[in-house]
Amino acid sequence: MILRRPASRRGTIIIIVAGICALLAGLAIAFLGRMRSDAEESALLMREAQSRVMLNAGLTYVQEASRLGWGLRSSGTLESRESFGWIDVRDGGVGPRDIRGQRMLSPDPGAAANDAITHPDGDGPAGSWFPVVGGHAARCPMYVMQRPPFAISQKFALNPMRPDADCTQNYAALIRFSVADPQPAVTLAGDVDPNGLANFNNGDQQPRSASLDLAWFRVYRMTRADCQAHRDLQGRAAPIAWSPAIFTITCGAGATAGYRSWAEVTADQAQGRFTDDPSFFAQLQAQETRLFFIAEWSPVAGGNVGEHYVDDMPADESRKARWNGDYRTHSYNHGGSFRWIERLVGEPGTW
Amino acid sequence: MPTTRHAFTLIELMIAISLSILIVSVAMAGFRTAAQTVTLVNRLAVENSLLRAGVMAGIDELDFWTSYDDPLDPAAQPLRRQPNSNPFRRLREGDAQSDPDIGFLAFGQHDPRSWWRGQGLFTSGDSRGDYSQFARTGHPQAWRSALPEALQRINGRLGLYGMVDYLPGNTIYAFYTGEHGATPDEFSRLSNPDDAATDLRAYANNSDAGWWSVKGSRPKDICTLTCVGGVTLTAKDGIVNTATNANRHIYQEEGGGVAYVNPQFNFKQLFNNCTIPGRVALTRGPAAWPAMRTTVLHYIHYTRQNHVAAVTITSPITGEAILVRFSATGSTLRGARQQRGLDL
Fold first, then answer.
1. Which residues of A touch B336 (CB under 8 A)?
2. Tell me, what's the ipTM?
């Protein structure tokens, strides 16, 4: 009789192979777990960076909105005009005001209460909206447009010099600029698109889907009481000096679109955005990063000028508008600047 | 009759052993490679985690200034130890609120008292008139002394960086200090106008060497004040001359405070020389773990406030070092002071 044990030998190999596979699978799972953990931690950093970008966006908004974006109520319509800053440099009045000193209004439909501003500090009545001091914050969910208004193409436009050109001519004459540079991102006119100029002006303001629900900021104009309620890093009362140009800028990275609470969502009738589900909104809220800053705007536009005072300044210098740095006497910044910025350690009472 | 086999033949055994060795060695090699990969991945992941933690710590430092002034630890407040002016000095009631429109905290641009009055084109001699009649410290008309005295007071309390931080961006950093003064002094007469090593205010002395020069004589705005050097915060000797100019914090690189021939701004030197030692993380971790340090530097150069954080990770095993530097918009000095309740 022949004794044969082939089955046990084959089983040994299977066990060895299975063991090695299990080991490798374990290592692979550990690797994937580590990678997932890294990705989650990176997401936290990404949100931090995203909300930091929103700080810059919020500050820029305050600068631009100091001069643009408001209007005067006239016969039931809103006329857009240039304003003279959050603090009017002419007399220190609370802005935005127009060239005649008339208070300017938010084009926001909810801003009708702006018409009733009477408080000497500019504090608005309950229910008023930004830009009223103490008014409801401006909420700005951010996204990337398909093509912003007045978009410029990244293409280079070549203007070659003619081979037979007279090289004694100046640069502009040699180049001639026969091809416009820079060029618009859309064809302005012609057979391709008869509405080219309108398209260029309006852009395609539809959001790029990948950029939706990533970040937002809110801007709230602080009242004297808000400044009195300011607290230091240890939570103790630490009032700060008030001016009508101090803003709370809340920077968010997440999908709540800048709504502070479900009550705010409801008041804005935006429940559909969150599937009409408060718990879903709460979940989004828990996942997002929110940073709170306050900053004081100043109408000062200087600080970036090399030649305020030069020996050979021409007598009529003030009427010149030259790019030559040697004779430039004023900065080309019309949005003002910031006196200071402060990160708040916690959520303020109003934002 | 067939032979009954109770064992392997030698050849079978040798082949089996050889194959087993081959299989096991391949398996071991694979396992070792996989294990090394996992170790390496773990190590890289730790480094990445440290890097992320370092960046977050750097952002926190930029926002809260705790390495410059830890509100919970008086021993970690190096700038407050400077004897005269210092950027974390508490303002007195009168500093901030004696006049709400021209105090440290306001400088309303609509208020004529905040407007600079002086001869901006020339500073030498009085042949072009006595401009100190328009504004100077101690002027009998209070509104003519308001700005000079505010400049003098804020510089004396907070130092140069603090003054630049608090004042509006269009400030002219000069004023007259005496009746019939023809030269708008930079806060006061210099003890040695030609040597910044003994008197750091020499950057604004009366020797005219062109607008780009740190020794240019004209009253300066923030651009000309900082176009070739920087104003920073540091507690290091040699940068801060506490004996004569406490906490001026002028930094002139390349020339060592002596040679001013078109010095170029050297960020690396500035960072190495002026940064206050940052925070070290994982001090209680195993010795084999990478070490992480986060440092920040606040300085004003060419009109701009710069807030830079550096994260350094060093491996004690390989000696490899990773350095990440980044800048971010965060709290300014005044913001940091407000976080500590130092203004009112």
1. 342
2. 0.81
